[in-house]
Amino acid sequence: MGKPRVPVKIVDWSEIVEWSRGLAARILESGWRPDLIVAVARGGFVPARLLCDFLDITDLLSVQSQHWVEAAKAAEKAILKYPYKVDASGRNVLVVDDIVDTGETLALAKRFIEREWGPREVRTAALQWISSVAKFKPDYYYIEVRDWTWFQYPWTRLEDLQQFIARIFREDERARGRILGEDELESLFREWYGVAPADFGDYWKLALDRLVEKGILERVNGGLKLLKR
Length: 229
Ligand code: ADE
Fold this sequence. Notes:
229 residues; alpha/beta; Rossmann fold; Arc Repressor Mutant, subunit A; 2 domains; 6-stranded mixed beta sheet; two-stranded parallel sheet; elongated; binds adenine
């Protein structure tokens, strides 16, 4: 098998705990202590909650970032969905996300909090940092990634799997407008993503069922076919 079109690494819960503990250790070693943690929704939720545990912090808030596709440009721009104000005067704020990929999200959240919440200092942390593509380097990270990979975190299994499967039906010439048998779909999936449906355990069946429920896929003669979009 050649190189997958979209290289995927499945991350399990035990790795998340290990990486979050390692990230907490880096923060402790630095001697800087946050008074307040801000999770960037949705990816920063679990790492931020674990950091609260490992760093003994009770104050946890969240801001949500959203990626816009500008109609004319096809360029992606990050915005904050609910830009509420908080009085964080005199406090050290740690902004947490799962991964720094382009770096837009975390940079945006940091700037917003600095400008609008009046904190003493804002620092940033992520479990992973893709150094080859990111325009922004977080103050703290646990893993430096060099070759771009899609990390399939445990909190987006079902969502990601549905998108992975739908993408094959929409973009692969061997799938478009056709009925795919289960074996064919599994083999295309392995080729596209470099991982097997079986690696996702029960989630594989859940994802297929969900795509059928939503009317995106249809079951025909024991196979599957794309219905819309
Ligand atoms: N979110 C943004 N970039 C990502 C990546 N490379 N893997 C997982 N989640 C992401």
